[in-house]
Amino acid sequence: MEIRLGDILIKKSLITRDQLRDVLMLQQGGDEKLGLKRGEKLGKVLLAKGHIAPMELVRILCEQKGNIDFLLIGNYLVEPMLVASITEKVAERFNILPLVSMDKDTIIVAANRVIPADEHDEMENNIRKKIEVVIVDDKNLSDNIKQCYTMFNKRGMSGVRIGEILVRDKYLSYEDLEAALQESAKTQRMLGKILIEKGKVNEKDFFQMLSMQRKVPLVSAYDILPILDKSLVKSISKAFSLHNLVVPYLKEGSKIYTVTAEPVVDLDEFRKAMKCKEVDIKLATYSDIEMILRTIYADTEVQVIEERDVKEEELKDVPIEDELAPIKAEDIGTLTKKFQKISSNLLWEGIKMRASDIHIENYEKNTAVRFRIDGTLYDIKHLQINRNNAGGIINVLKVQSNLDISERRRPQGGRFRKKTTDGGIYDFRVQSQPTLHGENLVLRILNQTSSFFTLDELGFSSDVKAKYEKLIRNPSGLILITGPTGSGKTTTLYSTLSILSKGLNKKIVTIEDPVEYSLERVQQSQVKDDIGYTFAQAVRAFLREDPDIMLIGEIRDHETAIEAMRASQTGHLVFSTLHTNNTIESVQRLIDLDINPSTLASELLLIISQRLAKKICNDCKKEYRPSKELLDTFYPCGVPSGFVFYKGAGCKDCGFTGHRGRIAIMEFWFIDTESKRLIIEKADFNEMLTSSLKRGMIPMIKDALMKVEAGIIPLDEIPNIVPYFQIMNWKDEQARFVAEKKEVISI
Prior knowledge:
This protein is an alpha/beta fold.
């Protein structure tokens, strides 16, 4: 659907909304003084009011119509094919300069005078097109007309070349274009390949402009791979595909759908080989075509990662101040440039695909690359690494992490930092692990420039959020967040501290292992076990600083638990985490660490247990019907009337997974007077749980079902995140209500 002219102008800040409103009113009513009739075109009204320059308007109109086939000659946008269709005699006779075509029947010309109606009709009869005239203030227009036709007689009347477009739109300098054209003529290599390899033009920008120029849709590897017919590809010569960077991916009758990086490739041989009458062509970048070919021909040196060199300005090293051992020069010398390129592209792909972890895994016959995206591990087949190259790639990453590359017998941990062109800072936490078939490497990616989630984005319901925000203003007490590794505990704590740090009257300190993100106005420190700087020792030191709020990364042992209680008792608000499955178990864990139940009951304010669930992708969200087994488990009394279930179908935006991003599924146990009594009495698990549920505790299963009802997560995600016993308890509870003929619990 065509975007409205006014919307484009506002988006580009060329006019304001107030100006657009005035112009639209003027368009409806007309204005005799300005020579405007009712219903005049918006562009004419904008020019009459002086809100936009003539050539600026022509450029925007071209953009609106998707026409980029014009050259910048002086201040004029001129379309070569239009100049070819209007003779120089006609242009000189009427003193008009052909500009651009708006469609097959309408053209725009420039004139430096108002054209009378009869002369306008004569022009249209001569040119046989509908003509829109743009009045320009140019006394030398006739000279410009002569210059235009002189230049085009020398140049020829072909369409605008891609190099000319790149220079015109300031993606490239004229000097760089000339140098690349000379190299292309000498080497017979494509201009785009030369410009991209030399870093003169960004690959994405080049192909977007090429797509517009050729009027061929631009797609990515992620559009093609899910529908790729490998048998169809292998029915033509591998050499032909590799040489021409062309891949047939789908066949419908006598029509072959093809993706290529070279839209001018001669397809006569291709048609004969495929025995087809019609070829549908899509455009893809060199990297995407090579990614597809790498997936098809896993045994062929397509060299996707090796050839695409991430430029220094794309991913820069950022120093991290730390006491790390230096690396010997002779060790670095053993690492080849090839391995450095592969490792850089591996990191870049991880960032682009929103991965939280990169896994490089060595097996007997191959090396696998896997990315964890939204909590799920995916084999990244287009990033296959040759088994012989795996050691070199791992060494490059170990050197960057300041790890000992000669040590392969024991695990090591390190980190490094990179910066992208858009200003993003990424920490890579690296862990090496010796295995039967060589070293494996896991890199955790932490985006240091992303903003923290709000409580709404984390998954807090409105009523719980209001209660939580009041509770975290408490002057003292203990708030615990529990859950397994990777359940988002740190994210919840950081989001909470970012709220509390906005006040200037609080001192906030943390001790973490490790420090994952830097927080404004928060004093953060990291555990260093090798020198005896533990959680407990840090807390004792913090107490001498008189902080208001304290974060203890994890309560692991009796000593840390005691210090956390002591800090809370002496007037500090303490946040910490435990690795337990639910809120009630956390009390038993602390009692097992020899914490007095009375002390625990007096200090506890809240325990949150959480997991992370994959969110449905909004771009491909669709209705679906879950399996009968799932419905019987979660809705044994029947699905509520009118209730609709949703899931993601899979699209380009989500990488065809159907999900994008995650949200916390939470269980909140606010410690009230009755809960304190039960803790002091060391009540058993079932008694505490039953009592808490009766007084309004929201179990994790109920929070998950509320998010299903809101269309945020799919129903089949619940068994992946909610503990099994909670699901069974929920099913039994629902069944009891049916048996007793009571009203079904509303979710």
